[in-house]
């Protein structure tokens, strides 16, 4: 049985927690089969030797939603955070066996919205593949959380996330100002079918793959904040 109090404290104090065996082997295989059936030639998909990614995953692959947002996952979310949260962003990415792709330390400082608009407290703006992203007020980022569903065993050899515990509580924390005499790095290994929950302000990074093991992850962001009009979440999806 899950000790929800420990996971609540981990998210509150350290900015993340790892929960194993949220998805069964059969559920993971069903997710993989659905993804492998997708037409990957779409312009909205990013496909290179180092990375395959599907942005707006639930929109591009609508059949995947019920397989991801299982009753067990929704129960975990409701217990840890309450029942007022909804999906605001979804990405699938596959780091292949020979990938040299890595990500330096950073915070997730932007949200995906429907359009660019002059709204106080929102900015700067970026646009990728016709998606509008903007840095919102800090309070929105502090309240949001991300669930990362692992479709493969992930460790330090195939790009498991490295994080700096407690960095989520320090506001905007520029990577170039990290004081390594005070901060400690933690590698977050997650087994197949497990999830990692993290706050977007948690400093995190990912190394290159050095083993012949894939790392496939479904990344889903949640919020309970409605945006000021005319801004809307680009992928707003209420949990059932």
How do you describe this structure in short?
With 240 residues, the protein is of the alpha+beta class. It contains six helices and 15 strands.
Overview of this protein structure:
The chain is an alpha+beta fold and 240 residues long. It is 20% helix and 27% strand. The chain is built from six helices and 15 strands. Strands 1, 2, 3, 4, 9, 12, 14 and 15 form an eight-stranded antiparallel β-sheet that branches. Strand 2 (45-47) and strand 3 (52-55) form a beta hairpin. It is globular, with a radius of gyration of 17 Å. It starts with a helix and ends with a strand.
Number-wise, the strands total 15
Structural class: alpha+beta
SS field, number of helical segments? 6
| Biggest beta sheet summary | 8 strands, antiparallel
Query: Roughly how many Å apart are the termini?
Result: 23 Å
**Strand content of the residues, in percent?**
25-35%
Low-confidence stretches: none
Helix/strand order: HEHEEHHHEEEEEHEEEEEEE
Average pLDDT confidence is 92
Radius of gyration: 17 Å
């Amino acid at each position: 049985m899950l000790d929800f109090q420990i996971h609540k404290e981990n998210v509150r104090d350290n900015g993340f927690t790892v929960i194993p065996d949220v998805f069964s082997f059969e559920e993971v295989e069903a997710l993989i089969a659905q993804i492998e059936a997708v037409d990957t030639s779409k312009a909205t998909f990013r496909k290179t030797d180092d990375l395959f990614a599907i942005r707006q995953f639930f929109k591009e692959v609508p059949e995947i939603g019920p397989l991801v947002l299982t009753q067990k996952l929704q129960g975990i979310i409701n217990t840890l955070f309450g029942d007022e949260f909804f999906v605001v962003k979804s990405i699938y990415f596959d780091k292949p066996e020979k990938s040299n792709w890595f990500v330096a330390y950073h915070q997730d400082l932007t949200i995906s919205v429907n359009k660019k608009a002059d709204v106080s407290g929102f900015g700067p703006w970026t646009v990728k593949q016709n998606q509008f992203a903007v840095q919102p007020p800090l309070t929105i980022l502090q309240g949001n959380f991300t669930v990362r569903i692992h479709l493969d065993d992930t460790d330090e050899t195939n790009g498991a996330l490295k994080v700096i515990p407690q960095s989520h509580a320090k506001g905007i924390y520029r990577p170039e100002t990290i004081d390594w005499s005070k901060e400690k790095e933690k590698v977050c290994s997650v087994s197949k079918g497990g999830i990692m929950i993290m706050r977007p302000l948690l400093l995190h990074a990912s190394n290159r793959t050095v083993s012949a093991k894939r790392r496939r992850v479904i990344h889903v962001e949640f919020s309970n904040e409605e945006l000021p009009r005319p801004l809307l979440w680009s992928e707003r999806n209420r949990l059932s």
